[in-house]
Amino acid sequence: MFDLGRSFLAAVERRPGAVAISDGELKKTYETWFADIQRAAYGLERLGLSKGDHLVTVMQNRWQLATLHWACQFSGIVMTPLNWRCTADDLGWCLVDADARALIHDDSAAEAVLACGELRIPCVNVGGTAADGVMSFEQLCADTPAQTILRAGAEDWSLMLYTSGTTSRPKGVPRRHRAERAAAVAHVAQNLYGQDECTLGVMPLYHTMGVRSLLSMALLDGHFVCVPKFDVEATLDAIERERISNLYLVPTLYHMLIEHPAFSPERVASVRKIGFAGAPMSDGLMRRVEAAFQPELFVNHYGSSEIYTFTIDQSASRKPGSSGRCALNQRIRVVALDAQSPTQAVKPNEEGQIIADLASDEAFEGYWKRPDADAKSLRDGWYFTNDTGFFDEDGDLFVTGRVDDLIITGGENVSPAEIENALSLHPAVEEVAVVGLPDEQWGKLVAAFIKLRHPITPEELDAYCVSSGLARFKRPRRYEFIEQIPKSPVGKVLRRVLVAQYGELKAAS
Q1: Residue 469 in 3-state DSSP?
Q2: Which residues form the AMP-dependent synthetase/ligase domain (predicted)?
Q3: To the nearest whole percent, how much of the chain has pLDDT over 70?
Q4: 172 - beta bridge partners?
Q5: pTM, whole model, 2 decimals?
Q6: Residue 346: exposed, middle, or buried by beta-carbon count in 10 A (0-12, 13-18, 19+)?
Q7: Distance between CA atoms of 109 and 459, rounded to whole angstroms?
Q8: How far from 297 is each of 5, 213, 223, 249, 290, CA to CA, in Å?
Q9: Which end of the chain is less enclosed by CB atoms within 10 A, N or C?
């Protein structure tokens, strides 16, 4: 079985002159980029890193970060990227937890790195002015190895992503070359990518979606277009300039693109295939995205950092809300919410917890130094996702939220996603997030937080919910109109922020 280094080398040998990566005006072919990657791999080894060591990076999506990712795949070093918005506390904790042997960062993380104080490991600065005693990226890559560095095998560790922590420290998710390659192959197949494909590299390379975009392009000699951080105008410029053929984004970024005054269908005419993951897309947004792009392929991808793909629907608008069926390398089940065994499956249309088969080619094998998390999530060969959902009569999966997000109001279970979908179709609603707020009478009170397009009253929205067929006990009993829905850096709604901010307020009578 190929490791990722050999996979990249195959692309170099197939089409050495094809454009592999661009970053603004900079472009590199597979042949020239391979030389950069080899020099970076050699530089890491001269720093003292060897096979199995962890390299921590804290950078925006620039060609140097993509170069380091591939350099690690050739040298057998474990790429360990962190969110460039991390605090000094987050960075310091992860450096210790990962047993990091070196840190490479750009100026976006300079403040956090400086606040960490003296580091006991080598530090490299990319793209900025290196301080005394700190190596620059150019110095790291100054020398060429005498022979091609190709030290990793399919069973070696490739990558360790950190899952975003909400109430505790993030968990490291180590993944082998074979699992990363299988996920990239599945991504190519499930999104119907072909040769000469060109993708937008704006999803961060510390996130599984960004990594998948990077790897999948190399498998078919494609072009990865770096966009350091999401900005609507910079993104539209990149799409136009590079004639990008596919997008793979979280729903929030699609929303920001199509709602911006600079957007027009003509500017994205080269895009033929679009996919989304990371969070559900509401029915209302799905309709607007399809009208704006008119894609040949519209893929709903449901997965996680631990197991890249759970389900795929290649016609996302066919059945709004559906996440489709098992993907190329996966089996899934829906079991009782409190199930301790994968055998406790529920009936169609009955909500439960979604679990996935750990025998998948794409699966991880357990969290880094977290036997407590393993005991909670890994049972009898299955991964308990903590996501809720149900199968309909056709066998399609509907993801309704997280076990922790489920609202129990008056003794009834209510899914936020169902209410959000209903409200998203009202023309006055631009975005909506539903949470449960503490309430003496109901236990949890269903509250809708809404960013409006134009004014409307809570009474009108309440009447709309009833007329849409939403059960009366599920309709919101509180409406809050806010300027922005709080989200994580990769676009996930931060329900806990809404609960913390509004949970002490008295419910409207």
Answers
A1: coil
A2: 10-368
A3: 96
A4: 162
A5: 0.87
A6: middle
A7: 46
A8: 30, 16, 19, 14, 10
A9: C
Among 448, 281, 419, 418, smallest CA distance to 349 is for 418
Give the span between the Cα atoms of 68 and 85, in whole angstroms. Answer: 19
Distance CA 153, CA 264 (A): 46
Cβ-based neighbour number of residue 378 at 10 Å: 19
pLDDT per position as a tens digit, 270-304: 999 999 998 888 888 999 999 999 999 999 999 99
d(CA 155, CA 365): 12
CB 329 within 8 A of CB 361: yes
Residue type, 206: Y
- List C-alpha distances in Å: 205 to 211, 342, 501: 5, 33, 31
CA pair distance 202, 229, nearest whole angstrom: 6
Q: Taking a C-beta distance cutoff of 8 angstroms, is the pair 61, 87 a contact?
A: no
C-alpha atoms less than 13 angstroms from C-alpha of 177 in its C-beta half-sphere: 26
Contacting residues for 109 by C-beta, under 8 A, at least 6 apart: 58, 59, 82, 84, 86, 91
C-alpha–C-alpha distance, residues 240 and 302, integer Å? 28
Taking 50 as the threshold, does the pLDDT of residue 175 lie above it?
Answer: yes
Distance between CA atoms of 446 and 449, rounded to whole angstroms? Answer: 10
∠ CA 294-300-306, rounded to 5°? 150
Spell out the residues 6+ positions from residue 497 whose beta carbon is closer than 8 angstroms to its own: 486
* CA atoms of 1 and 16, how far apart (whole Å): 23
What are the φ/ψ torsions at residue 34 (nearest 5 degrees)?
A: -60, -40
Q: How many residues does the chain have?
A: 509
Question: Among all chains, which residue has been given the structure tokens 């993907």?
Answer: 327
Q: Which two tokens stand for residue 491?
A: 């676009």
